[in-house]
Each structure stands twice: as structure tokens, then as C-alpha cells.
Amino acid sequence: MAVTQQMKTGKAAEVVLAEDETTPDVGTNEAPAGAREIASLTPMMRQYLEVKALHPDTVLFFRMGDFYEMFFEDAVKASELLQITLTARSKGADKVPMCGFPYHSARRYIAKLIEHGLKVAICEQVTEPGAGPGIVQREVTRVITPGMVLDDEVLEPQASNFLAALCWGEAGFGAALLEASTGEFYTFEAASLSELVEGLARVDPRELLVPQGQREAPEVVQVCQRLSRAPAVAEGEGAAFEHTRAAAFLRSHFNVQSLSAFGLDGSPLATGAAGAALRYLKDTQKTAAAHVDRLSRQEKSACLVMDESSRGNLEVLKSLRDGGRKGSLLGVLDRTATGLGARKLARWLSAPLCSLPEIHARLDAVEELAGKSVWREELVATLKEVGDLERLCGRLSLGAGNARDLRALGLSLSQLPRLGAALARCDAGLLKSLAGPLGALPELADVLLRAVTDEPPVVLRDGGFIRPGFHAELDEVVALSTSGKDVLLRIEQREKERTGISSLKIRYNKVFGYYLEVTKANLHAVPKDYIRKQTTVGSERFVTEELKEYEEKVLTAEERRTVLELQLFEELRARVITWAPAIRSAAEAVATADALVSFARCAAEYGYTRPQVDDTEGLSITGGRHPVVERMLGAGESFVPNDVRLDPEDAQLLIITGPNMAGKSTVMRQVALTALMAQAGSFVPAKAARIGLCDRIFTRVGAADNLARGQSTFMVEMTETSHILHHATRRSLVILDEIGRGTSTYDGLSIAWAVAEHIHDKVGARSLFATHYHELVDLARERPRVKNLCVAVKEQGGKVIFLRKLIPGGASRSYGIEVAKLAGLPPEVVSRARELLQNLESGELDDAGRPRVAVRSSAKRSPVNAGQLGLFGGAAPVVVPPAPSVHSEVLEALRAASVDRMTPLEALNLLAKLQRELGTS
Ligand SMILES: Nc1ncnc2c1ncn2[C@@H]1O[C@H](COP(=O)(O)OP(=O)(O)OP(=O)(O)O)[C@@H](O)[C@H]1O
After folding, report:
1. pLDDT tens for residues 379-417?
2. Is 268 in the pocket of ligand 1 (CB under 6 A)?
3. Atom of ligand 1 nearest to the CA of 702
4. Contact 756, 749 (CB under 8 A)
5. Distance from the CA of 406 to the center of ligand 1, in angstroms?
6. CA-to-CA distance for 30 and 63, rounded, in angstroms?
7. Options 3.40.50.720, 2.40.420.20, 3.30.420.110, 3.10.20.310; which CATH number does 163-298 get?
8. pLDDT tens, 458-468?
9. CATH fold of 472-573
10. 639 in contact with ligand 1, CB cutoff 6 A
11. Which end of the chain is more exposed for a tag (fewer CB within 10 A), N or C?
């Protein structure tokens, strides 16, 4: 990094430009390196192509002085995506497409390319121009990929940015999740693809790393399709995933004899994935990755599992409307003060706990913080002063940080003792335990704040970031360079007086150094001891022996100052790296405190209560509200609370009926969200709640096409339902909204009924089942643990009033047509729908066996027209006289038969005759 920074000089730019101008022949604009005559290229373009050949799948930013340039197809692609002008190097047939921008705007452009899922390789000048024979040497110093980002401008503060390395075999899948900017590193193994996707979805990775040649493997394609945001896919060397090699690599990185402490014994797939992920980080960032100092294994049973579609349906992290945080549970509950806390909270909501002691520990902490409002807000004020410790430490450890990062780290660390002292005074065990890691770093904070100035420059090479008084030698050199400048000013004044040339100036440029400039009109007054250096349009430039001497002193002092400052920066950085594990522990404590404070703020401000979480299999919520819907209601609207009780003994499956728009989905979702919040350690929007631990939450809500997966709405619905039936247990919470609506009524009803029976008889999971099939309420008569509930409405003056109240019993009507009317369907369509509904309700078929539904009321009055219209018949009905059919004769004979006066034999004979007439015997 230091070398990189040293190259950022204007002088380098001049040399490179000169090199540019003297190299007109750069070949044709057919890009691939292999296809061109390398020998005929200029040395610099040869160098470019050599570097590019090592990084073929990246956009190569090639440093040329103060600019990054791109060539060939990279230039074409980048100019379009970045909206920068495409130019050409050289002319005629040898034109090479090229584009570029000043080095200091690189972050912005990197961010854009990463957003498009591309990788960027940064190729820097690693020798000083003119330092040796030939052209400046260049090397790729970092590769930035969607999953390997360190820069604040590219990263969202509240969101994690994970790489997921995957490998698979007969035993299943191994995954490693690595966050380059913070050093978080986890592994897990999965027996099936669904389980793998569940584990990955918790962190929503930006990039997948798979073994060479596997990018198109069905496993990879499916993972990409099933995640809510398709990640970029990179391939890593196959050998890096190989178990023994990966294990050796990990052992050497963590400096341990065995990987058993990381839970990797007997887990070849997880080990392979972890080894490959860490190697990818080291290879792309070209560093030792010291901040990755721990690796933990995620156990499935440790947290409440939600599959990707359930998490999406419940809008836990993102709203379904636009994929943003607003309108999601996270959007409501995130009142954190730091990026660290926001990321922690998102993690807690995507993986709620399954361990009662841990849940209770969080709830105790939230209870204490919720009850002490003044003190809580003081904590918030302190937390706001803490920067992103994880990312600051990560950047500095990976060699990508600058002096501003040191200063920000120093300021943040200096707040920790205050935070620690406040937490140590708490009663809740979890809060108290956070104080420990916060007290370990005052020494580092002190050094950083004493060393770095208040407003250091972004670019290290610009210098001036070490505070006076921190380093004696540096102070001396700085004094010399500034006093040298004073001397130059005195010389200028003296020479003006000596020559009488009042416009005489001492100036500086990189080629000639310091010189005296005299305008043409004053040349007659130039003394003999001036040595002419250069003539320009309006003036002449001179030097003197005295000026040369001072220049030497000033420049030497400035160079020495730069060298010293960079050296001091490296020393400070090394100190940060030494303290990295302690910084990461402190960051973890800050994040936990912040997330708990955020829960407490919501609890206090939104009127939440502490849930009772236990290991029973029941669930009971009194006066429950939907945490998001209640916050979205407009002025004058208020949320109607509802009670829900699920019990394995007598209310395991609740069938919820009610008109459209009544609030069925809302009440079911609020039950799921309440359970999820409770297990994440949050208070819940209810008067009282008792939640028996859930192992998984499943939701099958709404019907969304998944065209990307090539499946129809109904297919998606059935696939998800089948997943639930296979994976739900007695401890699960299942939310099913309108199962079967994606197909014909009879098919849908049959499927819904069979699914409900299966859940009751075989699965035993606590379930809520909303449906428009009123027939389903009959299930309660047959099955002991089925209970019917409906959402009440009132009819008043021909209008439907939604009461939003959940009451026992089944709904008798749908009011779908009333809702359609509310939605503005044309009046004639609404009244025709009413007519059709009446027909349907009075029987399916008319006497002639035709669908009654189509008959218009007016037509019913006229026997001539009976049964003549097709479903949704046209404006001019075609009159066809009813053809006597065998069926209608048989029906007529049946109708005429007086069964109560027949002997059994007569009845049998009649049956046989009718069958013969139908041709079935
Ligand atoms: N308890 C409540 N208090 C206040 N408003 C509510 C309540 N429940 C639902 N609502 C409002 O009613 C709207 C419709 O609710 P919801 O989508 O749950 O109805 P639904 O019965 O599932 O409808 P459909 O059968 O058409 O899917 C919600 O968007 C919300 O604004």
C-alpha cells in the first residue's frame, strides 16, 4: 500500500505521458492478447496485456500517472457502464479503444462496476518513474469483487457484504461465509440444496465462489435462482477446495495444530469451502488477512430456521413492494445508532434463537433498557460517537486504510470506556458482560489520537497527518522544510530590492525546481550572477547558486518528511493489527449493545410487552398487533388488536375464513412475526404473549410467479406446500394463506382439505390456515384439534364494514363482489357478477345439465331462452331448441319414478333399464 501511495505523483504522470506519446504503434483493436503480435507492441502495451492475461475476468484499472486507464473491451464496457468518454490510443487501423479517469475518483467508479456484478483489478505503478531502466513497473495490488469489498463508498453501512464459498459431494454441501470488511467467518454443512439455501439466505451473499468449471453446475444455478438477490459467481482453483489442502491452509492461517476448535473435524466439505474462501480473500487483497482471526461453525439447531420464501413473505428484512427496508420488520425495529448495530440486528432477525437461556438473557437486557429511558438515550448518544470499528479495523488490516481511518478508529475507541462503564452499572447479565471487552483498548486510542491530526488528508502521500509533538525527528524535518520556505520568501524580497524589479517572483515546477522569473520588460535589470534556465513567451527563468542550495535543503526535508510520515503510518497500522482481536471483540460488544438498545427503544416507544418464551408447544397472543401494518396506518386509522391461541391439545390448526380485505393475512403474519421477534429477544406488539419455542417458521402466502425458475404460479405454490409438509415438525409454526387458489375450485378445495388433514393428523405443527373455501370449516367437525375463526364484518346500508376482529366460527360469505366494487370495477360488471353468483349458489347445473351460472335473471323468466347462454354469454344469444337427449330422458324417468311405492325388484329393474338406455350395461 505504501508503495502504491508513493506512486501518486504528478511527476509520474509526466513520464508516462512522454512514454505514451512516443509509442504510436499499439496493434489493432482486436482485443485478446493471445491473438495479437505481442512483439510489435510498445513496452507499455505489452506490459498491459501481460497483466490483463493474469486477470482475464476483471476490468483492469491500469495506473498511468495520475490516471487509471482501461483498454480494449474493458474500455468499451466501462465507458458504457460508467458513462465516461471512449477515446482511442494511437490512430488509424491501430486504434485501441481506451478510457480513464483521475485516480482520486476511482472509488466511485469501482462502486458502479461492482454494482453490475463485475470484478475490478487495480494495477498500480510499483516503481518510481525513472528509477530504473525501462518503463515503470506495474502490478495488480488488489482485486475488488462484489463479495470482496472494503471501501465505505461501495459498502452499505447497515448491510453485511458476504462471500459464500460452496463445495459439494455425495454427503451434501459445505459452505463458508466470509465478510472481508469485518473479518466475520462462518461455516456450515447442509444435507440438501434447500438447507443450503436456507443457510445462505440468512446472510444474503453478494458473491458465490465455486470450484473451477462449476459456474454452470445445476447446484450453482439453483442456488442463484432461489436466493432473493442473485449473487455474482466466481470460480476458484479446484485444488483450493480440496479438503486436506484447505485444512493445512486454515491451520497455518490460524496458527493452530488442529481445526477441531472450529468444529471442522470430520467436515471435509465445510473445511474445503472455508479454505477456498480464505484463499480467495488473500489472493484478491494480496494480504495476510490478519483480521480474520476466528472461524465458527453454524449449527442448524441453534437458530429458528426460515426458508428464503418464508423470510421474504413475512417481509422480515425487505418489503415485498420494492425490496427496500421501509415496510419490513427490520425497517420498523432498526433504531440502532451504528452500522455495527444495524448489521447485528439484521442478523438477529434473520436467525432468531432457539435457546431459552439466550433468549431470556436478551429479553432481560431489553427490559432493563426499556425501563430506563434517560439512561438509554445517554447510551444512544455515546453509541453515535462510535464508528464502524469492524470495518475500520478490517480496512487497516488489509492494507487499504488511510490516516482518516486511524483517526476515526482512535475517536471510536476513546468512547469505549464510557460505554463500558455505563454497561457495567446494569443489572442484566448480558449488558454487564459487554463491559469487559470495551475496557481493553484505551492505550491504542490514546496513541492514535496523539499521533494523527484532526483532519488528515484522504491520500497518505499528501502528508501532514502526523500531529506536531508526536515524533521528534519528524518535527525537526517539518521545521526545516517550513523555515526553508521562509528563507525562499526572504530571498525573493531581497532580490526584488537588489534588482529593483518589483514583479520578480520565485516559483517552482517539477522539472526545474525553484527559479526566479523576470518579465521580458525587466530583463535589462537582471544581475550577472543569475543563471538563465528557460525562456517562455513573456518571461525568462533564472536560478542562482544560493537558490539551488536552499532548494536542496527544502526538498530533502520534504522528502524526508514524507518518508517519515509513511513510516509512522505503517507503525500505527501494525499496532492496530496487533490489537485486531481485541478491537473485534469490542466491536461485537458495541454491536450487541446497540441492537439491544434498539429493541428497547421500540419496546418503549411502540408499546411492546415482554413475551413469555418457554418450551411448551403452545402459543397464545392477547391483543396482538402487526408490527409493520400498525406503523403504516394513516392518521385517524387505528390498528384493531386480536387474540390468537394455538394449543397442541385442542387448537393446533386454526382455519381462518372471512371476506377479502378483512385482515386474514395480516393476523396470520402478525402471529409469525410475534414469534420471530420473541425468539430474536425483542419485546412484542401485544398486551401479553406466551410463545412456545418454534424450531421453524413456514409461510406459504400469496401466489407469485417465478418465471426465472420456469414454474407457474400453481407449481410454485405446490412446491412450497410440499416443502412445508416434508419439513415441518410439531415445534414448527406454519402459516398457509389460500392454499389451492392457483387452480380450479374443486381441485383447489380438495388439495386445501387434504393438506389441512395431513397437518392435523401427521405433522402436528401449530398452523394457521386462511381460506376462501368455506367448505373447509367442516373439518372442525371431524378433527378434534381444528378450530374455526373468522374475521368479522358488518353489513350496513348495503355496504361492508370491516371490523378487523377475529371471532370464533366460520364465515358464511366472501363479500368478494363488494370488495371488487370498492376497487372500482364498472357497475355493470359488478351487477352481472352478483347475478352469476346467485346462479352458482342455487345449483351447479340446470335441468338440461348445462351450467346454471351463465343464465341471466331475465332469461330465467323466459322458458324459450333457458340454458342457452354460454358462460359470460355474448350480447346476442343464439336460440337453439333444446335437443332431447338420452340423458334428459333418463333424468325424466328417474324424476317420475315413485320410489316409495316400488318393490326392490322393480327398482332394480328400473335401474337396469336406465343403465341400458345410457349404454353403460
Ligand atoms: N387488525 C387490523 N387493524 C387495522 N387494519 C387492518 C387490520 N388487519 C388488516 N388491516 C388492513 O386491511 C388490509 C387488508 O388486510 P389483509 O390483506 O390481511 O386482508 P385479507 O383478509 O388477507 O384479504 P384477502 O383475502 O383479499 O387476501 C391491510 O392491508 C391493512 O391495512
Report:
1. 999 999 999 999 999 989 888 888 999 999 999 999 999
2. no
3. 27
4. no
5. 51
6. 22
7. 3.30.420.110
8. 878 778 899 99
9. MutS, DNA mismatch repair protein; Chain A, domain 3 (1.10.1420)
10. yes
11. C
